[in-house]
Amino acid sequence: MIVSVILAAGEGTRMKSDISKLCHTLLRKPMLNYVATASSKAGIEKNIVIVNEKNRPIIEQTIEIPNAVFEIQRIGEGIPYGTGYAVKLGMGHVSDEDQVLILNGDIPLLKAESLRSLIEHHLASGAAGTLMTAFMDDPYGYGRIVKDEEGYLKAIVEHRDADEKTLAIKEWNPGIYLFNGKLLKEALEELDADNDQGELYITDVVHILSTRGHKLATYPVADAGEVFGINSKDQLAEAEELLRKRVNTEYMKQGVIMENPATILIEPGVAIGRDTRIGMGVSITGRTSIGAHCSITGDTHIHNAQIGDRVVIRSSDIESSEVGDDTDIGPYARLRPGAVLGQQVHIGNFVEVKNSKMGNKTKAGHLAYIGDADLGADINVGCGVVFVNYDGVKKHRSTVEDGAFIGSNANIVSPVHIETDGFVAAGSTITRDVEKGALAITRPEEKHILDWVYIKKKKH
Ligand code: UD1
Ligand code: CA
Q1: pLDDT, tens only, 170-181
Q2: Which of 88, 93, 91 has the alpha carbon at shortest distance from 201?
């Protein structure tokens, strides 16, 4: 069996961050997720993830692959440290017959296809280990690949431990290794911390095995950009741009229209139908699906939402909501969690909907708050209507049946039930149920005092 060990326990000092490096995000997904997903997509069913005590909860919660196994690396004074030590912690899950794929957790652009090719190459060659490598004119900071006269891999020398001759080598180590399980375990026992950082380096396994006469191969990756390792926040931003381009290009190839794609943020995994137009600056994240022929423009942000076909959304915020076909939203509307809109619904400017249903063709054109309410079809919610759902202690729910009319600036003090075709007069505050077809009106008597303005002025 091929098992993977994914390294995610490092301190990430160069990130200068209070958040674990592996939890920093690209297109809103934690960095580690990309590596784990590539491993899983390459067909690896057993993925052992080395985490530390601090980042474990978030990694366990956000990882998107099935059956990941976690091992904790304790970090602190007097405790060994380094990539070699981290790999060692995973060996309890590895048997001698396994082939072990070791992956640095900080290479989010890595593709599953490249891992598959590496595995094929390794199994075909019968080498004791195969290292994915890359070439660059100046691989600053990376470990250099040192080979013997026959071209077999002899050692990996860290940049900081390298002499001038070694630094001139253009082939470098991206941190993706495949080793025979038994030989790896034996070599890990021999690691020492005799290097500039005083750490146990996984890269030293190469030297240990080659000294013992084992053949180790290299497998150069086609595109060095794919194995870009992230150590700092500027590298994070650089990698995110590369990933954005890759992801958005794929959506466009599937038929999505993008205006200025460099400004659009789509989290991988979001589904978008063909001929849907995404305007500049839009973000679509989480478990979201969007139908075909929609138009999503302006300052719009959509998270965890299901949007139908031919929906028009302008400059609005939508979270954990459902929107039916042919509905239009915004500009400047907000759908909060639990908003469920039917078909041909109209939500206009400055309308907020929370934990509420709105049936087909129901409209709220301007300045309204619809919270904790179930609205049927063909209802008109006037300008300035408020569903008063909170009494300071508890939330209450109201229902409004089909065809009802709620006049402008009305307050519906929940819980209230408005029956079919019920009519609430503008400016009313409604606290009791409204019967079918009834008019509900609460207004103080209207008085007009003639010439009041002129009389007042003369007195002054
Ligand atoms: C490592 C390689 C270097 C290679 C580079 C590629 C070593 C010694 N060096 O260097 O040859 O060119 O990656 O990007 O391996 N980690 C742990 N526990 C630890 C230390 C690290 O889990 O005790 C994890 C980190 O979280 C990270 C990965 O291992 O995901 C690599 O660690 P990092 O410190 O980034 O290694 P580099 O210095 O970049
Ligand atoms: Ca690194």
Answers
A1: 999 999 999 999
A2: 88
